[in-house]
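Predict the assembly for these three chains.
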Amino acid sequence: MSNKYEVRLSGSGGQGLILAGIILADAGIISGKNAIQSQSYGPEARGGASKAEVIISDGEINFPKVEKCDLLLSLTQESYNEYIDSLKKDGILVVDEKIEIDETLEAKIYRLPILSTAYDKLKKPMVANIVSLGAICSISSIIDEKSLQEAILNRIPPGTEEINKKAFQEGLKLV
Amino acid sequence: MKVSNVVKDNFREDKLPHIWCPGCGHGILMHAIARAVSNKGLDRDKVVVVSGIGCSSRAPGYMNFNTLHTTHGRALAFATGIKMSQPDLHVIVITGDGDAAAIGGNHLIHACRRNIDLTTIVFNNNIYGMTGGQYSPTTPTNDYGTTAPYGNIDKTFDLCDLAKAAGATYVARSTAYHARIIEKLIENGLDNKGFSFIEGISVCPTYYGRKNKKGNAVDMMKSLKEDTIDIRIAKKKPELAEGKMLIGEFHNSEEEEYTARYDKIIDLFEKE
Amino acid sequence: MEKNIKLLQGNEACVEGALAAGMNFFAGYPITPSTEIAELSAQKLPRIGGRFIQMEDEIAGMAATLGGALTGKKAMTATSGPGFSLKQENLGYGCIAEIPCVVVNVQRGGPSTGLPTSPAQGDIMQAKWGTHGDHPVIALYPNSVQEIYEVTIDAFNNAEKYRTPVILLLDEVIAHMREKVDFDSVKGKEVFDRKKPTCPKDEYLAYENTEDLVPPMADFGSGYRYHVTGLVHDQFGFPSNNSEIADTQIRRLLNKIEKNKKDIIKYEEYKMDDAEVAFVAFGSTSRSAKESVDKLRSEGIKAGLYRPITIWPFADEKVKEISENVKNIIVAEMNLGQYVNEVKRVSSDKCKVDFYGKINGHLITPTELTNFVKEAIR
């Protein structure tokens, strides 16, 4: 149970965080671990606060939901406000640079230009999720680069391989 | 007594006589279906007769095919499953006015819309007979039923108009009096590759007739003759059609059938 | 050799399991949180020569599923609470007319429209008594994506073996979460096909009171012409008001399940050998219970878990035996108390049976259960 690593990816609906969660879990499976991805959602298909949860573990995972997470990603202020309390003490917080955070927080904090990398540098807002995965990959040792890249290529729409590879690399470099 | 070949070939003789009241029109309509199947030379092993609940829906029990007596209003939904899963079967649906147009109304409009190859014959007796004479969607306005003791305030449903508007590719109406004509209309329905809707006006002397002072069974049968007019005549001489119910072929068009469309999807993957 | 492992959603695993069991017909109607089952069936069935149809409503979805099954297909439909309510009419038809098929109910919060995107286990009793009249029920309830894959095959096998609709219960949590599935786990698993008649065509009795209580079933179109009705019927399938026939036929329906309980009932026991307090939990709740068992054991409390995979028929003997060996039974369900009453019905007086329920749309957590147990055994 001690090696159970719990991740919560949050932002707004449409940012592709569910897909990012699926990719992360897939990478867990590829690297020979157990993984569960789950989500809670409301009736709206776009907008609203959205979150995906991933648990990766060497052992069996029973309770499939994340109560307190080891790593929280927040791409919007709203989702940060909503989920910051679910971060474990001394957990890892990864937020977009535009988000105002509580400076007294007891956590390893990474404020990164995730959205601007996707919007301005890559000119593809929809790859913010993959940029985020790149950043998470270099911050945390939970998943290796090779498995994650393989999982990304498994799950993205055909024809978008190059831009997603690039987004992943840019994410890795953010840290 | 010599039993006709139609009966021998198409009926489960040991299940006869049927349960319908003396003077009921349903037996004539059922026999017309049997004759149409014989005339078309359909392989009986490949014929499925599906019904819902009500007087009309007892018919399949007497008929020597693959027969399915379903739940109230759902005959078309079961039949759709049968036809969709095994398109080489000839699927005939026997239903009543309450079964098809009230509780099963949604299934009727969607079966029409899909143009799935089902031949549906509605035995319309303007009343819920099995439950004892309550008004149905086809009970004429102001007529009486046990649940319309002061006269029916509902507007009457024209089922053929409904079927045509919903997309059925063959729509016709005749009556239990016009036994030969309805036989031919059912044959046409069986020929049509698509959804065929044939309304067979029946008579219910026991409930509808008695409640509405329509006379005895013979009087009611007579009025099927006298109060109806073929649509072709009505078109030529509209003055003759006044106050009469139109019968005949109302609609016949060719459109791609539903299961054939699905076959094309399956064909896309044949090579895989 | 490379392992045949994939990350799949619960609903996807259900379709994969159905296909592995030979599903070749699906009729349904969209409803959250089961829709992915229809979507994936629509995508996959034509590729194997099977057929999918989206019907005009839930009632029609159930009817068309039975229609497909009558032509010899392995048919499935999927729904959630509101749709499961609508399907009850024809589900009862499937029971009395003995038509094999699988009905998936991905449970969500109720009553009525309820909490469409949240989990619940409020349809446990509906699965048994939802349709009117006495009838047999087989209801299965897996608790992981891997198990959804495997138990969906069992659902089809039971349907075919016992000529009856089988209800596959899921809940929003296990239906929507993604977990790995090892497809090789079912290698060698038997896939059962319904028994078909071999007798001369004029001697076929579709509802014969056979020794094994499950008469052979002919496909419509195969040349065995017979009658199917929702009325109580004789061995030929024809309606009958005869009281002796009614009694024999309805009892046969019940007995064909009752007498085969050994084959039908599946369960998992976790650390039950020396348990003094036993959880009874199923579906997603059982995962929390399992975690709680470990937590309680780490604190010196001898906990265990009995997890029915076959919800119906109820394992009377097994639960009775458990109640004779433990001091406490804790039944945990995402409802206000359903299965617990069955557990109490068979439990020994020596054992205290407590209930932990939750209906706010959230999964019961291991922490909640651990605290509850400590309180209950004090």
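Chain C is about 40% helix and 20% strand. The first helix of chain C runs from residue 10 to 20.
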